[in-house]
Design a protein that fits this description.
The protein contains five helices and 17 strands. By secondary structure, the chain is α+β, with helices and mostly antiparallel strands. It has two domains: about 1-45 and about 165-330, no CATH class; about 45-160, Jelly Rolls. The strands form four sheets. A five-stranded antiparallel β-sheet has the order 1-11-17-13-14, with no helix packed on it. Strands 3, 4, 6, 7 and 9 form a five-stranded antiparallel β-sheet that branches. A hairpin with a 5-residue loop joins β13 and β14. The radius of gyration is 26 Å and the shape is globular. The two termini are about 20 Å apart.
């Protein structure tokens, strides 16, 4: 008999054929720049390392009391150090220029980046350059400006440290492999990603757990009956979601409710789609980042070769760093 919202947990649901990744994370816990710094790699000249891209054309910009007209072009800064530069020319009489940095994951939808507002440029501080280092986690940044009272001459650019190593493709593969290895060890999914989790049956208790930790949202819970008809459950009415911080998320029955009855489809009839992981790289604990760097170092320096004729052993320091971050729940 399936559990109800008033029952006592007895046994868990039977897991299906294994969960699968729907959407991979778009960020890694550490950036390529951080990895190169850790490995002390940089094969280009100072000039080669710096890329300057114009965001907003340097020109006389007319009065607009909003931030939607004088908008710059988005620049890809993912994995690199970046500085936004405001080059202010001469303001018109009593004219003011307010410029800020905006950020985006897709170069389409931009939002204001906290801490990205330049000092207001007036006739007392024009004809000068201003800069702000971007320390956010989005892939694209641009500038947006408004001009009041009189037209102002100015433009903006994004300076990116594009330092690369000759084997950057290898480093990217190593970084992904190290993160996935840490996820295997900790049984956590570190940064925002979407997964599906199948069940063969409803549990005999009033909840079941979801893997990965750091549950953000449950996209859907669907089940298929023996006739092949699919039904989508309704959150709050049919189930409740416990995100439980960095711990294991749970799906819980509301008070007085039961799991759906009837005969289920024979193969993975219940599928839960959910989003989990820390939302930004800055939130990932440093002990996890440190372990990833150590594993990257081993993978890069050893290149899979034995050390002094011995088998390559697991990095014990990395294992100790990750011990307290592991999720021990069984699925």
């Amino acid at each position: 008999m399936a559990g109800t919202g008033t029952g006592t947990p007895v046994t868990g649901a039977a897991s299906g054929g294994g969960w699968s990744l729907v959407t991979a994370p778009v960020l890694e816990p550490i950036t390529m720049a951080e990895l190169k710094m850790h490995l002390r790699l940089d094969t280009d000249t100072f000039d080669d390392n710096l890329g300057l891209t114009q965001s907003l054309t340097y020109a006389s910009h007319a009065i607009f009391d909003e931030y939607t007209t004088h908008v710059g072009t988005g620049v890809d800064v993912l994995g690199h150090e970046a500085i936004a530069i405001l080059s202010a020319g001469t303001n018109g009489v009593d004219g003011t220029n307010n410029t800020k940095i905006q950020e985006s994951d897709d170069n389409v939808t931009f939002t204001d980046w906290t801490g990205g507002a330049f000092t207001q440029v007036t006739t007392t501080n024009d004809n000068a350059d201003y800069k702000i280092e971007y320390t956010g986690t989005k892939q694209y940044i641009r500038t947006a400006s408004k001009v009041l009272v009189a037209a102002c001459i100015f433009g903006t650019s994004i300076l990116v440290n594009e330092a690369t190593a000759a084997d950057e493709d290898l480093l990217e593969a190593i970084l992904t492999a190290a993160r996935e290895h840490v996820e295997d060890i900790t049984r956590r999914y570190l940064l925002t990603q979407t997964w599906t989790y199948p069940l063969q049956s409803w549990p005999d208790k009033n909840y079941f757990k979801l893997p990965g930790g750091n549950l953000q949202t449950v996209t859907s819970i669907k089940y298929t009956d023996s006739d092949g008809d699919e039904t989508t459950l309704t959150v709050t009415t049919d189930y409740l979601v416990e995100t439980n911080g960095e711990g294991i998320g749970r799906i819980v029955l509301p008070y007085g409710k039961s799991w759906p009855s009837g005969t289920l489809y024979p193969s993975n009839p219940i599928v839960i789609e959910f989003v989990c992981g820390w939302t930004t790289a800055a939130l990932v604990p440093y002990k996890i980042k440190a372990a990833i760097k150590m594993i990257c170092s081993d993978l890069y320096e050893m290149r899979g070769e034995p050390v002094l004729g011995q088998s390559v052993v697991e990095n014990k320091v990395a294992q100790r760093l990750l011990a307290s971050a592991r999720l021990w729940d069984e699925f």
